[in-house]
Amino acid sequence: MPIDLADIDPRIVVRDQHGTEAPFSRGVMATSLLATGVLTDEAYRLASLVQARLLHHERHNIAVLDLVELTRLTLDEHAPDSNVARR
Question: How far is CA 61 from CA 44, 75, 79, in A?
Fold first, then answer.
């Protein structure tokens, strides 16, 4: 699935374990969430919630492991299936 430039948020930078930085992508996040079994619309809704939480808490630069934890918390609170965060 190609990345839609409208899904990229340059206000949020994600750093991997090697220090490489990339802008947050709602599309990449949604694609990752599809692997948990949620439908596409739900994956985008959840990815948007993660993005909104990052912006609300002014997390403009985040390590990938912190993003994983924030995503898990968001899924625990908002996913329709309680097993989504575990998957």
Answer: 21, 21, 25
- Contacts of 47-54 with C-beta under 8 Å, sequence gap 24+, read 49/74, 49/78, 50/74, 51/9, 51/12, 51/24, 51/26, 54/12, 54/24
List per-residue pLDDT tens for the chain, 87 residues long: 455 656 777 789 999 999 999 999 999 999 999 998 899 999 999 999 999 999 988 888 999 999 999 999 999 999 888 788 888
Rounded Cα gap, residues 47 and 83, in angstroms: 17
**Residue 73: which of 63, 62, 54, 55 has the closest Cα?**
54
